[in-house]
Design goal:
By secondary structure, this protein is an alpha+beta fold. Helix content is 32%, strand content 12%. A three-stranded antiparallel β-sheet has the order 1-3-2, with helices on one face.
Length: 121
């Protein structure tokens, strides 16, 4: 018999499913001293394309788009679009007390910085 929590629609595993791979890749670029109290830009605010993410995770760009949407719907990530180049992603605050709050941070997105392929290697 399964625990009742696995049947609830609020179960985070059901919300994000295999999108956890994209989340793990984005988390991998976070600074080691990030405490999760505030949101933080992924890869220092560098622009990242779906093609780069798809190549790194060995999945299609369409799969990346679906995973991105799942993570955004779960409130775990967000992004700004750099037209024709990709996105600047951020990871939401991980601590329950601050979840969903976007507090000011010192870091600014750098839409003119080089593509994320340099940080993914």
């Amino acid at each position: 018999m399964r625990p009742a929590t696995s049947q609830t629609p609020n179960n985070i595993r059901k919300k994000i499913g295999p999108a956890v791979w994209l989340l793990a890749l984005l988390w991998d670029s976070m600074p080691a001293n990030w405490t999760g109290d505030t949101f933080l830009y992924v890869a220092g605010g560098n622009v990242i394309s779906d093609a780069e993410l798809a190549e790194r995770l060995e999945v299609s760009q369409r799969r990346i788009a679906k995973w991105r949407s799942r993570l955004r719907a779960a409130g775990m990530i967000g992004w700004l679009v750099a037209q024709g180049r990709g996105r600047v992603f951020w990871i939401a605050a991980a601590n329950q007390g601050n979840a969903g709050e976007l507090k000011a941070v010192e870091q600014k997105p750098a839409l003119t910085m080089p593509a994320a392929s340099r940080w993914l290697q």
